[in-house]
Amino acid sequence: MRRPITTIGVLVSAIALTLASAAPATAAKGTLHLRVEGSDDVRYTDPTDCIALPDDANAVYNKTDARVVQSSAPCGADIEPRVIVYPGKAEHIPPEARSLVVLDQPS
Fold first, then answer.
1. What mean pLDDT, rounded, does the chain reach?
2. What is the distance between the alpha carbons of residues 106 and 104, in angstroms, rounded to a whole number?
3. What pTM does this model have?
4. Fewer C-beta within 10 Å: the chain N or C terminus?
């Protein structure tokens, strides 16, 4: 009788750990606003990981709880940081920027 109870306890613990780790480690709470030339602003709610920038994006407003890095590398490549955009701040996006990367640690 003791073995089935131990097995059930191990399974419940494993399921709890799996569910707890399902959320992305780099999730930010809030919204990133991108100003795009000649178009409506683009909004990303609770952004995670890497966001590919639209071609005509020229400003980012960080209304999240995490720092965001502008990178000249595309998503999936090594980060080539250019500018850190702190929570509550806005920054110009230079033409060479290709992506925004949400950092894993809120500021």
1. 81
2. 7
3. 0.70
4. N
Answer yes or no: is 95 within a domain: yes
User: Is residue 48 included in any domain, yes or no?
Assistant: yes
CATH number for 56: 2.60.20.10
The structure tokens listed for 24 are: 């992305």
How far is it, in rounded angstroms, from Cα 64 to Cα 48? 11
Tokens of 30: 């809030």
User: What is the rounded distance in angstroms from the CA atom of residue 105 to the CA atom of residue 92?
Assistant: 22
Query: What does the alpha-carbon distance between residue 66 and residue 103 come to, in Å, rounded to a whole number?
Result: 7
Number of domains in the chain: 1
Contact 84, 67 (CB under 8 A): yes
Domain extent for 65? 25-106
Sheet holding 66-71, edge to edge: 50-52, 99-106, 66-71, 81-85
